[in-house]
Amino acid sequence: MTLSLALALFPTVSIIHTHTLYIYCNCTLPPLPPSRYTCDQSPSSSLSLINSSFPFKTHLQEMASSHFPFLGLLLSLFLSHVIVFTYAKVYVVYMGSTDSQDPNEIVLHNHRILSSVHTGSVEEAQAAHLYSYKHGFKGFAAKLTEDQALQIAKMEGVVSVFENTKRRLHTTHSWDFIGLAEEETMEIPGFSTKNQVNVIIGFIDTGIWPESPSFSDAGMPPVPAGWKGICQSGEAFNSSNCNRKVIGARYYHSGYEAEEHNNLEKQQEDEYDDDPKKKVSYRSPRDSSGHGSHTASTAAGRYVQNMSYNGLASGGARGGAPMARIAVYKTCWDSGCYDADILAAFDDAVRDGVHIMSLSLGPDAPQGDYFSDAISIGSFHAVSRGITVVSSVGNEGTKGSATNLAPWLITVAASSTDREFTSKVLMGNGVRIKGESLSMHQMRAPARIISASIANRGYFTPYQSSYCLESSLNYTKTRGKVLLCRHTERSTGSKLAKSEVVKAAGGVGMILIDETDKDVAIPFVIPAAIVGKRMGNRILSYINSNTRNATLRIFASNAKLGAQPAPRVASFSSKGPNALTPEILKPDIAAPGLNILAAWSPAVGKMNFNVLSGTSMACPHVTGIVALIKAVHPTWSPSAIKSAIMTTATVFDKNGKPMRVDPDGRRGNAFDYGSGFIDPTTVLDPGLVYDAEPTDYKSFLCSIGYTEKMLRPITRDNSTCNDRTFSMPSSFNYPAILVPNLKSTFSVSRTLTNVKKQKQRTVYRAVVTTPHGIEVSVRPRKIAFTRYGQKVNFTVTFKVSKPSQGYVFGYLQWKHRNSRVTTPLVVRVAPSNLGATV
Ligand SMILES: *[C@@H]1O[C@H](CO)[C@@H](O)[C@H](O)[C@H]1NC(C)=O
Ligand SMILES: *[C@@H]1O[C@H](CO)[C@@H](O)[C@H](O)[C@H]1NC(C)=O
Ligand SMILES: *[C@@H]1O[C@H](CO)[C@@H](O)[C@H](O)[C@H]1NC(C)=O
Ligand SMILES: *[C@@H]1O[C@H](CO)[C@@H](O)[C@H](O)[C@H]1NC(C)=O
Ligand SMILES: *[C@@H]1O[C@H](CO)[C@@H](O)[C@H](O)[C@H]1NC(C)=O
Ligand SMILES: *[C@@H]1O[C@H](CO)[C@@H](O)[C@H](O)[C@H]1NC(C)=O
Ligand SMILES: *[C@@H]1O[C@H](CO)[C@@H](O)[C@H](O)[C@H]1NC(C)=O
Ligand SMILES: *[C@@H]1O[C@H](CO)[C@@H](O)[C@H](O)[C@H]1NC(C)=O
């Protein structure tokens, strides 16, 4: 098989569409050559039609008319007829807030719009219709041609029309590590979180494996009154699968099936029993991937006494809010999650009565406009109704790759914990090293180690075979040996495949040199371990100086506590700045997302628990903590909850040193971890919060260029951009202050709200750690609070003193005795200002 063939085959295999960096799937993932990994499963062009007079043409028509004017006319006449049948795609038509309109009225209106672009045909309109969104917000999803989409985009009341884009889905010990006791009855000193039984968390994910002990309802009180959700029946799932823990379950597949031309066919149980490589996609809320069960159990799983990954890391484990309720919205299928389905899930969740939504998925960077992205739209309406929405920042790892950028979302970065899964490696010269691995295999005796580059086969160059690409290894040269393979790009899925390639070529072990994600443990199919570049070079020089008899022995993986330093920001965790609105910090917060053990779907690999890495795993840690805050402070707004999480976070590791970032251990900053690593022991008592109302989100949208005309249908109230409370996005009352373009001086105001129930006056004092080369002054410098709910404004002024290039970082802390309310200060001096002085 040639390389190009392997590449061409890639798009059909796509299990990793989540914000999970690594999913165990026990199936062959195709090899990818280094540096050409483009992940092109999602439609390459995301078309977004905001209501405007922008002239819009299909590419076909444009080409025809510019090159052959006359022919073009004929062609486009011909095409406009044919296109209806051949080029219909799914579009989401978003029409803003429901304005408490009758849902039936909305459906009727949607059908009228659809039949009007289908020249009045009711049948065609019905055939094209996928969903009507009518509870949380207004709109629909339908199969449309580009022409029809354009017609609808021009209609009164339509905010945006966009393609049904595919999104990717981006614990046990992690909870003790971040400071919550292990048992289910755990309480945070001074607060009772018993009320978590009244907190309902909605998960937009791959569904749930309801039989998992993590989702047992033993000892749980009846379902909270007022819950309007349902338990939707489907393949291998019926209403008996819901209980007092999993109180609701729905599934959405119309958007997926319309795009993938793939009916989720009913499959027999024994089909996958015999062949674990075969995929199952239950056409029901049942989880066939494992991702959804993993995230739900991380946030809200019950205490399970004996949780382990094939016996590794065994022990008791539970989710963050083990008594909170779970509502399942399965929208993610084998290859990803489509906008049309995500919006349908949001629409139902808002009506069902969830309190929190958790989405471990997101768009590819760079993210599109806020109102042409299902997660931004759905969460805007959810947050406007007091529902907190938590999401993952993404796994692209590079600067500026952060996604889920809207200020109303809580966006989570991934960090390590102090638990590592490592394999010991003993070299023939007596040197002992260790590498990351989840492999249960172990070598009985030392074997020769060679560099994979000298085991190249046929037409493959030594360079190609050094990456252990499929078919690149010569059996004669590989048989019985340990291979030293390379891995440089973030094509994480192929790491497991490399161990399969080496195994197929007769190799008995593998050392994988990985410069980027070396901290992610992978369940290799042979004894194997991942090492960094430095250790890799040491092994290489050992091989080169003992070309005939360099040997090595790899042992089975071990779980080890006490890894140092911890936490560190994971190398794959996507980084700021915010590509859409640089004044808004993203990510907001960091939580454990590296090698997390939690519940799994036995449909994959027949395992009940699994170890996964990704910002997908970090997100539900924050979701669990939001549930605890909600239990203790049920009236707090989503922004107050977010502020409590952000201002109490720490930027120090467990040794009290500044938190570092993998893979090179550089010192971290707010673009790596937001306001820091989450601290559940202090979130319930933040002292002060930076609160915001739904009207502030409107002001924010005005400040970034949304006109009243665009805003009116989104919000459907009488607010205008004139009565906004601020005019610059940096004035949004965010618990972080970012000044991306500081000319000489600039002032920013914030409002603090006192949330400490108190008898006496408390005085907070401002303490600033200045960003390098910037003068910062705070007015007033002392603030006294006398009552609960009191609001006080303050102003921070930034002044350039010694300009430097790029972003510089500092902090503002409001201190009262031992209380600290901390916000990051992030400043970049304007390039013009730099030129003048440097
Ligand atoms: C959309 O555009 C049409 C014509 O261009 C206009 O009549 C209509 O009011 C616009 N709708 C909104 C919501 O701006
Ligand atoms: C659900 O399915 C199980 C197993 O197939 C069956 O025993 C049970 O009766 C079903 N319950 C309902 C309410 O249909
Ligand atoms: C936990 O499970 C492991 C393997 O599955 C078993 O060996 C061990 O005895 C179990 N421990 C308890 C306390 O059940
Ligand atoms: C594999 O290596 C052996 C020994 O070096 C050589 O004879 C054989 O031709 C090679 N096979 C291929 C397919 O490269
Ligand atoms: C194997 O390597 C050692 C050094 O590590 C060397 O002393 C010895 O002579 C080598 N043996 C053979 C058979 O090459
Ligand atoms: C993975 O699949 C192979 C067959 O392809 C099977 O022999 C092996 O036991 C599976 N591993 C796990 C952990 O399920
Ligand atoms: C908007 O204004 C109109 C007329 O002034 C009024 O009838 C309507 O109730 C207002 N709507 C809202 C949501 O305030
Ligand atoms: C704080 O500032 C806002 C506008 O930025 C203003 O509306 C409000 O009245 C101020 N509050 C106090 C207590 O000064």
TrEMBL record:
Q: At the top level of its lineage, which domain of life is listed?
A: Eukaryota
Q: Where is the Subtilisin-like protease fibronectin type-III domain?
A: 732-827
Domain PA: from-to ranges: 472-539
Database matches in SUPFAM superfamilies: Subtilisin-like
Top EC class of this enzyme: hydrolase
Task: Show which residues constitute the signal peptide.
Answer: 1-18
GO terms (molecular function) for this protein are: serine-type endopeptidase activity; tripeptidyl-peptidase activity
Q: Ranges for the Inhibitor I9 domain?
A: 90-170
Q: Which GO terms describe its biological process?
A: proteolysis
Active-site residue list:
D205 (charge relay system), H291 (charge relay system), S616 (charge relay system)
Family from the record: Belongs to the peptidase S8 family.
Question: What name appears for this protein in its UniProt entry?
Answer: Putative peptidase S8, subtilisin-related protein
Q: What organism, scientifically named, is this protein from?
A: Helianthus annuus (Common sunflower)
